[in-house]
Amino acid sequence: MKPHAVYELRRYRLHPGGRERLIDLFDREFVDPQEALGMRVEGEFRDCGDPNAFVWVRSFADMETRTEALAAFYSGSVWKEHGSLANETMLNSDNVLLLKPVAGTQPFARNLAREKETRSAKGLVTVNICSLAPGTEDRFAAFFIAEALPILEEAGARIDAVFVTERSANAFPRLPVREGETVFAWFEMHEDEDGFSRHQERLSNDVRWTSEVFPRMDSQCWRRIEVSRLTPTTRSLCTL
């Protein structure tokens, strides 16, 4: 599999009890047809803090192929047959961030060599989203890569991806995205909840993090950094 340049972080609010029905339908009917069109389902997750949330990441080679692939899938026979069943589980599906890799990084590099038969629902993923002032994302990303990332890794996190907002216009308005926002996001992988707790404890004892790096990051965010704790589904490429 080749590296991709455009990513969607999609978070769905579901009706109570709808998550397992959606995951079953998604895995059975939607993953393979999307990947056959050149999309890649990088990760599928249950949100540990919200039983009625389904989170997933989809990637594309570029913006042009994104438009073409989405048009083909959502006008195709698979979505026509099963789309209404998926929509019945959802309260809304428009909480979507359009992202691109931070320069010099390759998100989910382990996914490029991972075959379907090796997928497993292991690990705890944290998604961290920083809301920034327009035009500040590149400077923020450079500081994160140089100063924050080494400390996070020393504390036991595996950083699987770092993103900033993709500013290209959404050429497939049938699927809205959160336009007009500026974000920086990173994905961490931990062994489990205990591993994440140990990571947090190490960070709290690291004076570089507590007195300099995190305060500097936090001061540039318009709201508290949003942290979601996720567990992979059995078909998720993004796993331990």
Description:
- By secondary structure, this protein is α+β, with helices and mostly antiparallel strands.
- The protein has one domain (6-232): Alpha-Beta Plaits (2-Layer Sandwich).
- Helices cover 35% and strands 28% of the residues.
- Helix 1 packs antiparallel against helix 3 (77-88).
Question: How many individual helices?
Answer: 6
Mean pLDDT: 95
Helix content: 25-40%
CATH class: Alpha Beta
* Biggest sheet overview: 8 strands, antiparallel, barrel
Order of SSEs: EHEEHHEEHEEHHE
In short:
This protein has 240 residues and is α+β, with helices and mostly antiparallel strands.
Topology, pairings included?
Layout: E1 6-14, H1 19-36, E2 40-47, E3 53-60, H2 63-74, H3 77-88, E4 90-101, E5 124-131, H4 137-154, E6 158-165, E7 183-190, H5 193-204, H6 207-219, E8 226-232
Antiparallel strand pairs: 1-3, 1-4, 2-3, 2-8, 4-6, 5-7, 5-8, 6-7
